[in-house]
Each structure stands twice: as structure tokens, then as C-alpha cells.
């Protein structure tokens, strides 16, 4: 028979679709990605135990007390395994895929049940969908939609569709034809016959089909982890490829818990929505003589109330926990400004090590990162499409030659960071007489005719099969067993324990050579080729998207000693703690981050402090010098390795939070006057770290065009000119109390003027509006303030000294602050800013606008490169 090039036709079709219908695929990807993000935000947004409570209430409603308790215990176990986020990601994928599948499958099943031609046409299509190996569905998904959530959802929909269609059709066809005929005889329309007769009676079968859809969706979602779909699938895939038995067991248990919950709940849902199901449930409950409470199920309204209450609590806690600012990363956190960088890696040790090294470096430099483990094929495809920004484990020119040749037009080679490497076949040293590839010939029986390989997609496997075996006459005598890197290492380890002969694929550098006594088989004919280089490869346009990162990667290099020690540190940290291993390694190799990812201002701006890693909780009220000093210190502390949170509060709650230890420090205590009341009330629970700016002044201010008003004394009798109003700020501010209780009384302005409490921003808006209209206005203000630079204003003189003497701006902290943060305490006690420094910092923050305060402070720091080293010095 002639060779039929079916596969070639499929590839041509795929190429045409990729070239001509990309816009459709992008639209589908956006819609499905948006649906997933929305569902995942809801499921993973609340506190895990509260969400477990919601799932338990649903179980209580559908199945009773005992299943509810078991549900809560199961989801609490998932949380205790630190797999909650992954489980909710998986559940989100299942929900999205299952909903879409049901929306399509049920109408198709109804159509097939009512039309024999449609049924006949669908049957072979469903057969193909149901019997095609599940992994095959990932290929077009990755080709059309790249790696990530979308290919997983698409593959899941296709895989889970058949039972939904078949069971719906079966359920409707099984409805007694005499009932249908009776309905028609009474004049029931086809539509009402379907909705009032056939669907209610077919509902148990349809629900069974929906149950199978959900179960298949869950099984496929786990497989989707191979395409970067995330969730538990990625954990299971990582455990398989790295032979992590513990992780596999934990992830497997989480999958089982999800599967049991979804299975039992969808099965029980039939009892709630089906008349037959409700009748059967009522009969069971009525017949129960013992443990009647176990059969009790709350009404829908009661269950819904419980769900709503728990959801509101979970949402409220989530909002409270995320208010204002999240903890951010250390070291030059401004550079990336939160830009998302996606990294991918093949589960080879140097790939894991270099990827998590760069993940940590990028997070220290202010980037947000995503990391996905993939096989080589999907990884290169993902980088080419731009779904993955870069990967650091391209073995060129041999191992990954095929992938480079296929995608080189869409990739940028950022250079080699390690080399030369070598590929080899390896045997344990106790295997005598096998020292070279030539020695393998005629020795096949000794090794059971097998060479234990790694992933079939790896380029070195192609080189082994196509060149090495042929060059040494080993083809036919040896079968290369494709497995995975972890499986190969497990086989090597098992053979060594039993002292059995084994030959495996390996490469240098690799930690296995340090763990075992191995021999690299010599390659006198050079079949493996010359030693390779390990390259960093990014998608086209990455250098434009993230120029700083691209430059760092181009200059990236590790020595063999550095790479080996990094791999060993990660091995010691264990599965799932790769980044902890990297952090431990970085502590032992100080200066690596500054060398690999230099930032403006030099290394002095990003050296770690003695208390690096501690979290400093800062608070401020929205006065300009408070905003400026707080975000300045947030940047500096992150550069010194601290973690930070920032919260905006009114002065009352802020001082209360400091006194109770809920906040650590704030930088805007105006003493001894403005904040006198707060200081007197809480001083036993606070510590004054000293003044960093002063003297200040409080004043009433008018625009310069308001003639004849130069002093507080001039305001008397002029109330009508200002509509009897003095525009104030927050009522809780100490200066507002001083104004009302002392200044107005001292100058006889009580009764003539009303002090309007508002906010700092409202006062400034009123000042700006009045100036534009050239209207008289008198406002509360203070020095220093940027408004004096923006507008032509007059500070009203205070000849009677009612405002009191000029104040100092102090840093005030909780009582235990010096003990908790000794290094930072020393810095803050020496903290000083000149009027020119503070004014320029405030101006920069004003230019940046709301929401950009941290970035604006970083720009000011870049323009004043010595400020970090001066204000937060670290030891050499």
C-alpha cells in the first residue's frame, strides 16, 4: 500500500489556520481566559477555611450533616497540604470547562433525540472524541492558543463532551412513548412536550451525564497541567517528571477530594431538581428510624443564607487583608514596577536552578513572575508565541536543534550562560569492561538490551537514536527506552542499589556524578558532537518589552562551581521549595543579585540589611510630607531586603494602630502641638525616634490677590468677603482643634467664621477653584507644602502666637520597635531631610499622580543616587 500522508495534511491545515485565523483564536483565548480569571478570583479570593465552610454548607444542603463534616475536613486537609490555590485553580478550570460543555452538550443531545439524522451524524464524531487519546487534544490546543489555561479548557471541553450529549439523548429517548403520545393527544405543543414531559422524566439520566462530564473534565484538567494549565495538574506533572513521591501523593489526595466532592454533589443535585429524586429522598428520610438528624437537610433558603453570610465574611476579610498595599519584594523593587514576566522550564536540574534563580532576582527587582514547567516542545512553542517570555535551558547547537530550527524566526538567542557541556551514555563504575561506546557492542544481554533515556522530545534522544547508535553499530541490539529525567535517575538509583548493570543517558554538569560513582563512556568517534552551550532564549520583542531584563540575561553567566552549589542547595530544600533553596544560596553568595541584575545607583543601593526579610508595617495619613517620607522609606527598606506593607489611615486610627502594635512606624508626627492629644493619650505605648524635619509652621493662608488681609487680625470684620467660612482639613487633625479652640478665640473670630471640616484634598481643590475664579478664600495650610510653589499665596501673620511655636516632624513607632528592628531604629534616629530635598521629593510625587507614589519616590531616589547609602547604611 502506498504511504498516505495524513499527518502531513493535518500539519498543513494547522499551518493555514495559524496563518489565517489567528484573530479568532486570540478572541477565544481572551474570552476563556477572562471566564477562568473571574471564577478563580471568586474561589481563591476568600480565606480557605471560610471557603471550605461554604462548600460544607452546600454539602449540608444536598446530602446532610455527615457529608458536610467530611467536606469541611477534606478541604481543610487540602489547605493544610499548602495546595489550596492549586486546588481552586483546578476547580475553576473544571467549572468553566464543564459549564461550557453542558451548555453545548445538552441542546445537542436534545436535538439528536428529536432528529434521527442528527443522531446518526453525531455518533461517529462522538466516537472519535471519546476514544482519541486524551493527550492528543493538547497538541492543537497548544498550537492554536499557546500554553496556559486556554488549551487546557479547550481540550477538556472536547474530551468531556460525548457523555453529556449521549446521556441527554438517551434520557429523552427512554421517556415512555405513550406519555409523549398522551401529551400530544391533549394538544400539547412540541415545545411544552419537551419541557413539561420529556425533560423532567429524563432529568436523572441527564444529570448522570452531567456528572460524567464533570468527572472527565477533572481528569482532563490534570492532564492539562502538561500544557501549562496550572493547578493540581501542574503539581502532579512536576511530581511525575521529578519522581517526587511525596508531592505526587499530596497532589493526588487533593485531586481525589475534589473528585469525590464534585461527584457526590452533582449526584445529589438530582434529588433537589428532579421530582423523582425528591420523592425518593423523602421516602428514605421517612423510613429512617435511627439517627434522623443525619438525614436532615436544610431548606434552600436556609442554605443560601449560610452561603451568603460566609461569602460576605470571606469577602470582607479579603478586602481588609488587601487594603492599601501588599507586601512587595526586596532590592530595587522599583525597576520592574510590577511588570509580569513569564518563565518556563524543562524539569532538568540546571533549568530548575537557573529559572528559580531568575524568578527570585526578578522579584527582588520589582517584577511579578509566573513560572511554568513544560516539556521541551510546548515550551519552545510557548516562547515562540510569547506566552512564555524566556527560558534559560536551551542546549545548542545539538540537543535542542530541532526546536531552534523550527521556531528560530520567532525567537531571540540572548546568549550562553554556561558551557561547554557534554552529552554521554553513563554506567556505574562497578560495570567492568565498559569504558567506551565501542565497548557496548555485543554486550546487549548484560543490559537487557536497553538504554534508559529521558523525555522523547529531548534533542539528545534524537541524536542518540539517529547518530550514536548507528555510528557504533548498536541499533538493533539496544532499545532506547524513552521515559523522563526523573524516571531515568530512579532506574539508575535502583540499579546501583542492586549492583545491576545499567546504561543511561546523562549530561555534564549533573549532580548525579557527585552522588554516585559513575563512568562517562568515551566517544572516540565524536558521535555526540562537540560540547554544547546552555543558552537563554526569549520571544521576539522581549528586549523591547523588558529591556533591563534582556540586558541582564545577555550578561548572565554562572561558573560550574556556582551552578553545582545552587543545584545542591535546591536539592536540599526539597520539592516545592526551590525558591527557598535559591534564597539560601544567595545568602551564601552575597553580591550575586547586584552582579547579575545591576540597578541605577550601584550596589550600594541594594545591599541587604542585617534584618532583611522582616516585614515593616507602615502607616500614614494623606499629608504630602507623610506620603513622601513613607514611600521613600518603603523603597529604601525594600532595597535593604525588608518586606513592607503600607496603610493609609486618619490620625486617630493610625496612632491607635501603633499603640496596639498593629502598625510598626509612621513618619509624620507633628509635635509638640498638632498631634499633642494623640501623643499624650498613647505615649506609654509609643516610642519617639526623633525629628527628621523642622521647624514647621501652621497657618491660615489666602491668595496674594486678596488685598488688605495680611494678618489674622485683618480677618475680623471681613467674614462676608469669605462667605463666613474658613476651609479646613480633616476634623481629626490636631491643627483643626487648635484653630477652633485657640486661634479663633484669640483673634475674636468666633461666630463670624465657621470652620468647614473637609479633607486635605478637598481644601486644596477649593483653593484651586477659588484662585481660578479670583474669589477670596481662606484656608488652613502648613509649611512646608507644595501649594506655596504652585500658587502665589500669603501666610497670614500670627502676632499673638496663637498657633504656637514651629513644630518638628517626628518618626513615631510602636513601643517594641527598637527591639524588633534594631538596625532600622538606628537608621530612623539619624533620618534627616532638608527643605530642598523634601520639596523636590513632594514635587516628583505630585508629577507622578495618585497611585504612582512609590514609582515617583523611586525616580527621585534615582536622581539622588547617594540617598539610600546615606540614610540606610549597611556594614561592609
UniProtKB/TrEMBL annotation:
Tell me any Pfam family this protein matches: BPD_transp_1
Q: How does it sit in the membrane?
A: Multi-pass membrane protein
Entry keyword annotation includes Membrane: yes
Q: Where are the transmembrane segments?
A: 49-78, 90-114, 134-160, 201-223, 243-262, 299-320
Major place of residence: membrane
Q: Does the keyword Cell membrane apply?
A: yes
Domain ABC transmembrane type-1: start-end pairs: 87-266
Q: CDD domains this protein is in?
A: PBP2_OpuAC_like, TM_PBP2
Where is the protein localized?
A: Cell membrane; Membrane
Can you tell which superkingdom this protein's organism belongs to? Bacteria
Supply the Gene3D superfamilies for this chain: Dipeptide-binding Protein, Domain 3, Glycine betaine-binding periplasmic protein, domain 2, MetI-like
The UniProt keywords, alphabetically, are: Cell membrane, Membrane, Transmembrane, Transmembrane helix, Transport
Show the PANTHER family listed in the entry. GLYCINE BETAINE/PROLINE BETAINE TRANSPORT SYSTEM PERMEASE PROTEIN PROW, GLYCINE BETAINE_PROLINE BETAINE TRANSPORT SYSTEM PERMEASE PROTEIN PROW
Protein name in the entry = ABC transporter permease/substrate binding protein
- Species source reads Streptomyces mutomycini
Amino acid at each position: 500500500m502506498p504511504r498516505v500522508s495524513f499527518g502531513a495534511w493535518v500539519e498543513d491545515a494547522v499551518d493555514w489556520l495559524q496563518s489565517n485565523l489567528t484573530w479568532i483564536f486570540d478572541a477565544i483565548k481572551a474570552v476563556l481566559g477572562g471566564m477562568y480569571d473571574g471564577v478563580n478570583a471568586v474561589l481563591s479570593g476568600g480565606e480557605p477555611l471560610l471557603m471550605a465552610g461554604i462548600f460544607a454548607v452546600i454539602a449540608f444542603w444536598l446530602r446532610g450533616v455527615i457529608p458536610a463534616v467530611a467536606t469541611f475536613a477534606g478541604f481543610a486537609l487540602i489547605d493544610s497540604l499548602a495546595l489550596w490555590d492549586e486546588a481552586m485553580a483546578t476547580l475553576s478550570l473544571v467549572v468553566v470547562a464543564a459549564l461550557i460543555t453542558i451548555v453545548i452538550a445538552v441542546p445537542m443531545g436534545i436535538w439528536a433525540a428529536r432528529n434521527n439524522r442528527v443522531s446518526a451524524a453525531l455518533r461517529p464524531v462522538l466516537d472519535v472524541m471519546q476514544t482519541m487519546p486524551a493527550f492528543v487534544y493538547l497538541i492543537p490546543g497548544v498550537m492554536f492558543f499557546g500554553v496556559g489555561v486556554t488549551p487546557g479548557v479547550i481540550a477538556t471541553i472536547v474530551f468531556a463532551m460525548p457523555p453529556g450529549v449521549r446521556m441527554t439523548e438517551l434520557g429523552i429517548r427512554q421517556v415512555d412513548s405513550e406519555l409523549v403520545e398522551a401529551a400530544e393527544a391533549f394538544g400539547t405543543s412540541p415545545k411544552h412536550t419537551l419541557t413539561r414531559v420529556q425533560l423532567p422524566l429524563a432529568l436523572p439520566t441527564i444529570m448522570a451525564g452531567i456528572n460524567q462530564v464533570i468527572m472527565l473534565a477533572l481528569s482532563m484538567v490534570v492532564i492539562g497541567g502538561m500544557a501549562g494549565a496550572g493547578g493540581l495538574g501542574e503539581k502532579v506533572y512536576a511530581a511525575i517528571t521529578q519522581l517526587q513521591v511525596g508531592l505526587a501523593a499530596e497532589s493526588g489526595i487533593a485531586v481525589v477530594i475534589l473528585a469525590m466532592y464534585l461527584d457526590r454533589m452533582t449526584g445529589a443535585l438530582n434529588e433537589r431538581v428532579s421530582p423523582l429524586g425528591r420523592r425518593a429522598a423523602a421516602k428514605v428520610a421517612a423510613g429512617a428510624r435511627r439517627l434522623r438528624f443525619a438525614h436532615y437537610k436544610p431548606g434552600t433558603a436556609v442554605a443560601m443564607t449560610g452561603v451568603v453570610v460566609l461569602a460576605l465574611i470571606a469577602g470582607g476579610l479579603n478586602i481588609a487583608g488587601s487594603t492599601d498595599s501588599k507586601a512587595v519584594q526586596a532590592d530595587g523593587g522599583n525597576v520592574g514596577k510590577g511588570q509580569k514576566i513569564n518563565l518556563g522550564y524543562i524539569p532538568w536540574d540546571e533549568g530548575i536552578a537557573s529559572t528559580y534563580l531568575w524568578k527570585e532576582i526578578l522579584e527582588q527587582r520589582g517584577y511579578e513572575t509566573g513560572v511554568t514547567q513544560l516539556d521541551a516542545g510546548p515550551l519552545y512553542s510557548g516562547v515562540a508565541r510569547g506566552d512564555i517570555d524566556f527560558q534559560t535551558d536551551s542546549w545548542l547547537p545539538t540537543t535542542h536543534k530541532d526546536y531552534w530550527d523550527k521556531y528560530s524566526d520567532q525567537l531571540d538567542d540572548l546568549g550562553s550562560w554556561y558551557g561547554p557541556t557534554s552529552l554521554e551514555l553513563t554506567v556505574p563504575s562497578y560495570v567492568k569492561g565498559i569504558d567506551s561506546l565501542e565497548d557496548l557492542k555485543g554486550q546487549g544481554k548484560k543490559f537487557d538490551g536497553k538504554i534508559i533515556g529521558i523525555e522523547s522530545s529531548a534533542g539528545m534522544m534524537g541524536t542518540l537514536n539517529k547518530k550514536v547508535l548507528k555510528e557504533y553499530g548498536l541499533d538493533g541490539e539496544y532499545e532506547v527506552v524513552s521515559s523522563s529525567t526523573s524516571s531515568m535517575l530512579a532506574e539508575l538509583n535502583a540499579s546501583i542499589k542492586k549492583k545491576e548493570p545499567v546504561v543511561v543517558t546523562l549530561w555534564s554538569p549533573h549532580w548525579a556524578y557527585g552522588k554516585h560513582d559513575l563512568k562517562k563512556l568515551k566517544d572516540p568517534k565524536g558521535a555526540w558532537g562537540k560540547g554544547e552551550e546552555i543558552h537563554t532564549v526569549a520571544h521576539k520583542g522581549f528586549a523591547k518589552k523588558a529591556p533591563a531584563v534582556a540586558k541582564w540575561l545577555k550578561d548572565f553567566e554562572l561558573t560550574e562551581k556556582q551552578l553545582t552549589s545552587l543545584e545542591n542547595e535546591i536539592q536540599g530544600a526539597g520539592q516545592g521549595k526551590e525558591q527557598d533553596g535559591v534564597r539560601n544560596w544567595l545568602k551564601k553568595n552575597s553580591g550575586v543579585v547586584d552582579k547579575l541584575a545591576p540597578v541605577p545607583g550601584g550596589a550600594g543601593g541594594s545591599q541587604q540589611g542585617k534584618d532583611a526579610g522582616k516585614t515593616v508595617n507602615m502607616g500614614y495619613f494623606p499629608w504630602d510630607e507623610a506620603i513622601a517620607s513613607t514611600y521613600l522609606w518603603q523603597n529604601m527598606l525594600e532595597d535593604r531586603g525588608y518586606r513592607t506593607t503600607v496603610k493609609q489611615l486618619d490620625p486617630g486610627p493610625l496612632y491607635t494602630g501603633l499603640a496596639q502594635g498593629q502598625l510598626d512606624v509612621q513618619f509624620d508626627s507633628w509635635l509638640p502641638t498638632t498631634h499633642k492629644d494623640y501623643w499624650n493619650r498613647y505615649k506609654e505605648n509609643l516610642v519617639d525616634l526623633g525629628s527628621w524635619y523642622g521647624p514647621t509652621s501652621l497657618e491660615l493662608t489666602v491668595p496674594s490677590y486678596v488685598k488688605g488681609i495680611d494678618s489674622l487680625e485683618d480677618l475680623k470684620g471681613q467674614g462676608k468677603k469669605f462667605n463666613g467660612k474658613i476651609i479646613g482639613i480633616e476634623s481629626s487633625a490636631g491643627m483643626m482643634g487648635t484653630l477652633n479652640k485657640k486661634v479663633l478665640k484669640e483673634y475674636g473670630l468666633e461666630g463670624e467664621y465657621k470652620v468647614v471640616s473637609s479633607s486635605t484634598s478637598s481644601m486644596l481643590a477649593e483653593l484651586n477653584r477659588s484662585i481660578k475664579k479670583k474669589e477670596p478664600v481662606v484656608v488652613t495650610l502648613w509649611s512646608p507644602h507644595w501649594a506655596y510653589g504652585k500658587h502665589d499665596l500669603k501666610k497670614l501673620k500670627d502676632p499673638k502666637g496663637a498657633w504656637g511655636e514651629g513644630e518638628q516632624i517626628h518618626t513615631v513607632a510602636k513601643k517594641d520597635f527598637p527591639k524588633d528592628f534594631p538596625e532600622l531604629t538606628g537608621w530612623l534616629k539619624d533620618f534627616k531631610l532638608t527643605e530642598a530635598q523634601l520639596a523636590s521629593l513632594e514635587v516628583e510625587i505630585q508629577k507622578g499622580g495618585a497611585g504612582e507614589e512609590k514609582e515617583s519616590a523611586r525616580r527621585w531616589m534615582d536622581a539622588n543616587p547617594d540617598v539610600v547609602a546615606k540614610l540606610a547604611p549597611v556594614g561592609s
